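Q: I'm writing a short explainer about SDR family oxidoreductase for a general audience and would like to include a description of its predicted shape. Could you first generate the structure from this sequence?
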Amino acid sequence: MGKYSQPDRRPAVVTGASSGIGAATALALAAAGHPVALGARRTDKCEDVATAIRDAGGEASVHALDVTDGESVTAFAKAVTADLGDVEVVISNAGAVGPGTIHEVETERFARELDLNISGAHRLVRAFVPGMVERRRGDVVFVSSDVAVRARPFMSSYAAGKWGLEGMAHAMQMELEGTGVRASIVRPGPTWSEMGTDWDVDEAAFVLNQWVRFGHARHPHFLKPTAIADAITTVVSAPRGVHLNLIEVSPEAPLSEKEDQ
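A: Of course. Here's the predicted structure. Afterward I'll give you a sentence or two in plain language.
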């Protein structure tokens, strides 16, 4: 193994792994050779993904995880380390978004959403990054959103949460410089996932119309979760000595018909 090569065995943790981007990422990392630990509250859904990984010859572990609960995060970290060994890769993907006008949303709900999207990521960092620093290697990838740089209206705390998440990630990049641990951001544009599927139909239609009004939906194409999973796999597969700090992934617009000249 060369000086700048990645270690052969790199156990990976994926949160929010029961569906959407998280499930796709677990499958992609397993296909790239990573033993994968899947964490979410819906462990039955995670088990379905883990079965697909094992059937394809991969290694997968599933444990319940609620990133808003410090004891749950600690227990999860202990369990997956016992299953797979020292964790080399952490994908912080757990999150939620609900519709709402900011000045009408109850502060308690706003705070719960921020706790999930920011403090939940920090609990994960506290559980895994100290060990990475001690071993002098590791990758932490924060799944953000394009709302972190182009806020969308009527999504309650979501824009604030992703702005805060990216602020934490950028600070970590500086703090971790020279430790061998890389903190990276993958910033998806509109993506098909289960997020938003529990919205009231009329509320969802109103929010989408407001996105169009403010120029946030210039075309109808959405990304598939596999596109984000491939970007995440690229980030953690970069050789030692290379740091992919930020990758933005956006849906390509449909081909436009040429106007007659």
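A: For your explainer, you could say: The two ends are 59 Å apart (CA to CA).
Q: Perfect, that's easy to follow.
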